[in-house]
Amino acid sequence: MKTIIYAGAELPPILRVMSKAYSLSDVTIIANNIHDYYLSGLKIMHETDSAILLLSKIKEGVDSYTLQRILEKFGVKASIPTSDAKIGITLYREGKLKNNQDLVSVHRDLCKALQLKTNVIPFTNGEVEALVKTGEGEISLLEYFTAKKEFNVKKLELEGMEKIKPFDQVVKIIKDSESILIIPNDPISIMPIIKNKNIQEAIENCQGHVTVICPPITKRSTLLLETLGIEPTPLGVAKTFEEHIDTFLIDRNYQDLKPQIEILKMEVVATDLYETEAEYGNTIPKPIQERFQLETKAPPVITGLKKGVQKIGKILGTPEKTKEQE
Hints:
Blueprint: E1 2-7, H1 13-21, E2 27-31, E3 37-39, E4 42-44, H2 46-55, H3 66-73, H4 84-98, H5 103-113, E5 119-122, E6 129-134, E7 137-140, H6 141-146, E8 153-159, H7 168-176, E9 179-184, H8 191-194, H9 197-205, E10 209-213, H10 219-227, H11 234-240, E11 247-251, H12 258-262, E12 267-271, H13 277-280, H14 286-291, H15 300-316
Parallel strand pairs: 1-2, 1-9, 2-5, 9-10, 10-11, 11-12
Antiparallel strand pairs: 3-4, 6-7, 6-8
Helix pairs in contact: 2-4, 4-5, 7-9
């Protein structure tokens, strides 16, 4: 079993490529909770739900916001655009939780109902209050990363990180993983996971290979890292992971930092890391594939041909080949 740990206000481009071009049937995705928020009393699990919608074939409601507009007419304040599809997932989740079902089981049932081959589960049901103090006031970390305007950042506060407890199932999944890939979309959002002692111990005791992809260090991330006293470079980001990982992937533009990062007792590999899905095409970089092996999906044309041949075989009464015959 393989595990992907991801965090971010937006889905990492590499995760998008993986979902489109590779089979994730033997992968569990653990999503962070730092960007959870409330809409009219409903808890929207932003990162978990975003991953579920990415993997699902749901088209209805993904790009429509009718329910949010109706709520706004009732006086509900909505600072984060919330699609009808996300509200639908939230209503399903809330109903299950009221029947005393635990959150991990709820998400497994949700993935099963959507016929996903990948389980997507949240890291915890605890909450971290991530607030960015700017010259214009206080906003959530999610608002900061998704806003179109720039901000004069004064301070970043991460309240509650030391109190959150990961689900026991999450800790076990990490310990038992044959390979772990950590994909932050930014260097801040991943902190509740990588700074959690239970997760650190689980990663340390994991017998599988642990790979971290250094996220792009944008201007917005730089401002936040500086308020935390963290050097806004791959070296600074690598230090936040301490010594619990095997391989740290950085963009080629930073390969001069490789010797300094290697002092942290981790393998450092420079490769081409991009900020958009389009730049990757349908292929993840070779160093990732070597350490987190995935099978490519069969092209739709090939899949369609196979189904067509099987259908014709049934009509003609041709027996299907067994695995031994293949």
